[in-house]
Amino acid sequence: MELKKRFDVRKFLIISYVLIFVVYIIYGLQPARAAETIKGHLTIGTIGLSTDVAAAETDDEGLITPDDIPAIYSTNPNKALIYGHSARIFEKLDLLKVGDVINYNNKDYYVTRIVVQEKDDVRMNGLLSGRERDTIILMTCAGELYGNGDASHRLLVTAVEK
Question: Which end of the chain is more exposed for a tag (fewer CB within 10 A), N or C?
Answer without folding.
Answer: N
